[in-house]
Design goal:
An eight-stranded parallel β-barrel has the order 1-2-3-4-5-6-7-8, surrounded by four helices. The two termini are about 15 Å apart. β7, α7 and β8 form a beta-alpha-beta unit. It has a single domain, classed as Aldolase class I (TIM Barrel, Alpha-Beta Barrel). The longest helix is centred in the first third of the chain and has 17 residues. α4 crosses α5. It is α/β, with parallel strands linked by helices.
């Protein structure tokens, strides 16, 4: 019987994660495909994470207020995209930075965590961006697109070989993002990834 995405992610996490608190699966909100994650949260594996993104600050805050208690109940880490102050205001588990913000952080040095347990992830689409994320000392890097995605069907994907080659060139923990499903997850089961990220297809 084929392994599920979650099972592959947990195996990768146990083998490759450099920190114990890093989730094996990271889910993300999306204006078109997952604008309200409320109904999804009870089905997420324990100790996975959810990133609230792609909304105005006010919209992000409203979603956070709506789902924070639910995330706590189901032991799902809650992060917000590109807004450290909002993360601190609502005592979230961390923050996720888009690639342009990772570039700015790396130019200034490294990201200074407000507390040791604060989880910091960033998006990367190139080897140059990956090295910037390493310089910024991010906990996790969402490297994409690994495979063809619904969100960006015409974007050039990394593929298994290049993804693993890039993931092997950093001391940061790397997640595979883009086109992850049960079939493609198996193709990454021998990679340096510590898990997977996505909007859909992970459960």
């Amino acid at each position: 019987m084929a392994l599920t995405v979650s099972e592959v992610a947990r195996q990768l996490n146990r083998r490759n994660a450099k920190k114990k608190n890093l989730p094996a699966l990271i889910f993300m909100t999306d204006t078109k495909r997952l604008s309200d994650p409320t109904s999804l949260i009870p089905y997420l594996p324990k100790n996975s994470a959810l990133i609230v993104r792609h909304f105005s600050r006010n919209q992000k805050e409203q979603i956070i207020i709506k789902i924070k208690r639910l995330c706590c109940k189901h032991k799902v880490k809650l992060l917000v995209s590109d807004d450290v102050q909002l993360a601190l205001k609502h005592h979230l588990d961390g923050v996720h930075f888009p690639e342009k913000s990772v570039k700015k952080i790396a130019a200034c040095g490294r990201f200074m965590r407000p507390k040791a347990s604060f989880l910091v992830t960033g998006a990367c689409h190139s080897l140059t961006a990956l090295k910037r994320a390493e310089k910024a000392k991010l906990d996790g890097i969402l490297l994409s697109p690994v495979f063809t995605t619904q969100s960006h069907p015409n974007a050039a994907c990394l593929g298994t070989i290049r993804f693993n080659a890039w993931a092997s060139q950093t001391d940061r923990s790397v997640y595979g993002l883009g086109g992850i499903n049960q079939k493609t997850a198996i193709r990454l089961s021998g990679s340096k990834s510590i898990g997977f990220a996505g909007i859909g297809g992970l459960i």
